[in-house]
From TrEMBL:
It comes from Parthenolecanium corni. This is DUF7869 domain-containing protein. Residues 644-657 have a biased composition (Basic residues). Residues 598-620 have a biased composition (Basic and acidic residues). Residues 588-664 are annotated as: Disordered.
Amino acid sequence: MSVDEEYNAFCSRYFEEDNESTISNSSDDDLELGYDTLDLSNVDENEAERVTEFLSNDCCINKCHTLIPRKMIEETRNNCLELSKGELDLVILSHIESGLKCTKNLADFYETVAKRKKYGVKKDKDPERRKIEFTFYRVPICRSFFLFLHACGRRRYESLVQHFCSNGATVRIHGLANKPSTKSFQPADIQKAVQFIQCTSDLLALPLPGRLPKFKDYRVMKLPSNETKSSIYRKYIATLTDGEPKMSNRSFRRIWNKYIPYVTVMKPADDLCDVCRGNTLSIAQAKNVPDIEREQKLNQFLDHLHKAKNQRAYYQSWCGNTDDTTTVLSFDFAQTVHYPVSPQQPGSAYFKATMKCAVFGITDEKRKVQYNYLIDEKDTVGKGPNCVASILHYHLETYYSDIATLVLFCDNCVGQNKNNTVLSYLQWRVDRGLNKTILFNFLLTGHTKFAPDRYFGIFKAKYAVSNIDTYDELLQCVVDSSPGGYNKSVSAENVTWYEWDSFLKPFYKLLVGITQFHHFIIGTDCVKTKKFADSEDFETFRLLRQPILGKMPPVIQPPGLSLDRQWYIYNNLRSLVSDTKNADILAPLPQKKLPAQKQKEMVPAQKEKEKVPAQKRKGEVPAQKRKGKVESAVASTAEPKFKAAPKKVTPMRRSTRSRINTYN
């Protein structure tokens, strides 16, 4: 067998037969499995056209491109195009190194090899003429075909050869790398910009308030939210003279982020601690005061942060409690939600008073579950202590009826939680034998972020993207907000509202100065109080006046919706429902009619009609009253001529006239 026959057999064995078999097998498998063919993108189509154009022309005299199947050419080019610039350089450099045909050490060997006749090609008389031999899977190919396979241009290849001759197969580094730019700023210019930012932060910035846990960088300074980096840049440019170089806004920001990244702009925020904010402002403004006074203010700030940290640690210690006889609950009110609501809100919905629903959450810290009580507008009795005590009573009697020790955490809201009514209700539970001991705890004002807020946030995230038309859909939205079942919804229709306030006053005394305490231990005989978790001294109070009777307080019946509100909902909210089937559920027809005067005011069409001037209504003529008589105005094409009324001249007082003459 000759050399040509051997080479043809090699190619057919390793390329043509394998490719045809794989292509046929893959196509048959795709047809059997029913796969859909994908359309090529514009980039792939352009690449296919480029390959077709190259294969249509001869790359060299030997026609090397006919030796390699088209599929392998496309795969090799795609693999090279996916590589980064540095990675592709290393691939080509490795081929250059392996295909290098003439070196000083192997010059004699290559001279003898050049005398041989290979694959029908004439012997190479000049071994120095072609220095690199290109191969593809050990198949000799020409340079143009090699460059096309590896998606490499001629100029890039020549530069790679020069780099290999001088540096070997190493990564190319740009000549300007690690060299200063010709347009770079001098150190004095950079220092001036940095000093300007520091001086601005000393005048305007405030130290970071103690609201971020595990944040140890005390250098952080916050500029006011009305300032921006661009505004600081404009002020800096205004201070420069004509001869000084001016940097761009981008360069100014780059210097800012590199040298003083701890100076940032304060973002708008709410629910901040008043004490932290006051201490921060006082420290920032105490620049020219004596060091003793400044140190006192700083110590006050640190004491407040220490108390907040201890209160938080006390709360977290109870959250990790695993005692079966103890239950740890946290409760709070969320922001009132409204319905019907849609993520695609029509413009008219902004001006309409939709249905309101209060949300009261009780979190079981051990089970990591929150019960959300949704109080509809028609079932509400307000957000006062009667509401809180009634929901607590229903929840404890329904889910925790046999708990010996009860631990409660809530915020410092005086009107809802921290008042004598809720405290008397908890002591009433102990006196009735429903619980042995109750620990009633409050977080520090301004630092009251705890577990209920997390579950409220999960619910609000689902609420913001949901279509909700009715109260039942709002209940379902709470359940759907957490697929793991951590958010549960409870209808307030199941809760019985009691008049705890007036019922408990004859039995318990009022605790004077209740707002200064944060911890209450309620027992059968007395109530022990502490101001803070790390306080050592307890104060004991006996609040029971007379023995507790076995009866329950009187029941409060929710007032429901007024007749005006019912008609408003019927006339205005039915159009906001996304599903017409829910219109009668949300806004049914009221059973009673409004008086005639109110009925006219409540009809939307009549309201819109009254807004339009009488002269612009079609088919209507305005009525004008003159001297007690009603006359009809006749419409005419001529424009009416109005005669301006003469101005009424009021005579000046004598004192005013004399004062004017005096000034003149």
